[in-house]
Design a protein that fits this description.
globular, 20 helices
Length: about 500
């Protein structure tokens, strides 16, 4: 890339589409390979492997929030500011390497403790796990450094390259151990090293790409002042990273504690499935953050407001369909008995997930302004009222009470972040129609959800209403959407 090349300013809809494809692409590979894993490895080995990845996922907070900190810092710099960009990059990578080493040591130590306890790993697999421990310890550093390289590329808004590298790494890392399990050995002492080597190869490729687009980079580019800035930003991101999972799981923990573990599946299963639809808002938020960071304050505020309203309406349409079809979908999938116990709470949870999903706009707007501290403080402030709501509502109203408490917490989060980012007055009235529509379809489903034909008819008639709302609130976005749909239709007819 030439040093005088202007910053890429592709349409957000293009970046969104690329990110969405990148998020969806590995799913069929997982679906196809997991049965092969289980068949050739057995339940116990696959269970140990799953626990290893869970442990690595939990310790991923050791990146100290440097991924968004680096994206923000790099996106704010011009592409021809080579030295400053190199200073940010080498400072961030130096901290990442240090924390990756600490994380690797933590993984190794935790693994040895689990082996010593003799309770978490089957006796017949202890030898395999012990032999693989050095390789297990390398997985977290490889994951942290891979995420860092992808963040550097995303800061340039080169999402096509970022997704090619990320999807390629994911697929390569998933398929290579399967090949090992089928044709070489099904023991963990062979599969885990294979997974680590696959990750290492993918990381090496990403590092070469980063060097080519950001180089030359020297170790002497490290700056302590720059490292302190990145850590100051990333520290608050880390606080949010640690608190957010607690906020997202407290309702499920309350259900298990107050209603018994037998009630948890009726709450957690629909919650988990509904949450999968957040892949849509995740794709747009990933595209939005670098653009907000590189934009002027007024432009960033307008862009975040528009993204919030547009996504709120269109994703709200998807959620409204899910609400109307909740009873038939749960009944067909899990049976009438499960649906009878779960559907009402699930319908309320859809509203909670819609509210939580559109928080991405003020969330990344505050990050782009280098104020992640406000988000962390807001998350801490939500804990007491959320716990109180769960304590008051769950024992009295069961799953429905826990779901209502979840809506309350999500509303506090969205309202607080919109207020802190200064877009509350700008967006609240524009979100009111789609919010009212969700309330209306929720009431209809609760009153007549068992009339499946009526629910299907209402779902079919829902999207014209949603599109009219979208055209009313964002005419430019509506025009772009219809243009894209017409082009796709013409291409499909031509094919």
């Amino acid at each position: 890339m030439k040093s005088d090349e202007p910053k890429p300013r592709r349409g957000l809809h293009v970046n969104f589409a690329v990110n969405l494809i990148g998020a969806v692409a590995p799913i069929p590979i997982f679906i196809l390979t997991v049965p092969v894993y289980i068949h050739h490895m057995g339940d116990a080995r696959y269970g140990v492997l799953s626990l290893i990845w869970i442990m690595i996922g939990y310790l991923a907070f050791l990146d100290l929030g440097l991924a968004p900190a680096t994206i923000n810092a790099m996106a704010r710099l011009k592409l021809d500011d080579r030295r400053e960009r190199a200073q940010v990059l080498i400072s961030a990578f130096s901290i990442n390497i240090l924390m990756a080493l600490i994380g690797g040591i933590a993984i190794y130590s935790i693994g040895l403790l689990l082996l010593a306890s003799g309770k978490n790993v089957p006796v017949e697999l202890e030898g395999e796990v012990r032999a693989a421990m050095p390789w297990i310890a390398t997985l977290l550093p490889l994951v942290l450094l891979s995420n860092a390289t992808i963040g550097v590329i995303e800061a340039r808004e080169n999402f096509l390259l970022a997704n090619v590298l990320q999807v390629g790494s994911t697929i390569f890392g998933q398929v290579t151990p399967v090949i090992c399990a089928v044709f070489v050995s099904n023991e963990l002492s062979a599969i885990i090293p294979t997974a680590a080597i696959a990750r290492l190869i993918s990381l090496a490729i990403s590092l070469v790409v980063v060097y080519r687009i950001e180089g030359p980079i020297r170790l002497s580019d490290f700056q302590m002042a720059r490292a302190r800035q990145l850590l100051g930003y990333g520290g608050w991101v880390t606080v949010s990273t640690l608190v957010t999972p607690l906020l997202n799981t407290l309702d499920q923990l309350a259900v298990g504690r107050m209603l018994g573990v037998a009630a948890v599946p009726y709450y957690s299963v629909p919650f988990s499935v509904i949450s999968r639809t957040q892949i849509l808002t995740g794709a747009i938020s990933r595209a939005l953050f670098p653009r907000l960071s590189s934009s002027e304050p007024q432009e960033a505020t307008e862009l975040a407001s528009r993204a919030l309203v547009s996504t709120g309406i269109l994703y709200g349409g998807i959620c409204a369909c899910g609400i109307l079809l909740m009873d038939p979908l749960l009944t067909i999938w899990l049976g009438a008995a499960f649906s009878a116990k779960s559907s009402t709470a699930a319908v309320i949870l859809v509203n909670s997930i819609w509210i939580g999903s559109i928080t991405f706009a003020p969330y990344w707007l505050l990050h782009s302004r280098q104020r992640p501290d406000l988000i962390a403080k807001l998350h801490f402030a939500q804990l007491p009222p959320f716990v109180l709501a769960l304590y008051l509502l769950t024992p009295s109203y069961g799953l429905i009470g826990a779901a209502i408490a979840s809506v309350f917490r999500a509303s506090l989060d969205l309202g607080g972040q919109m207020w802190l980012s200064g877009i509350l007055a700008r967006c609240l009235s524009r979100l009111a129609p789609i919010a009212s529509l969700l309330v209306a379809v929720t009431a209809i489903q609760l009153l007549a959800g068992h009339h499946w034909i009526l629910m299907v008819v209402l779902t079919a008639g829902l999207w014209p209403v949603v599109l009219l709302l979208y055209r009313w609130q964002d005419p430019d976005g509506f025009g772009m959407l219809t243009s894209i749909l017409f082009k796709l239709a013409r291409r499909s007819r031509a094919a």
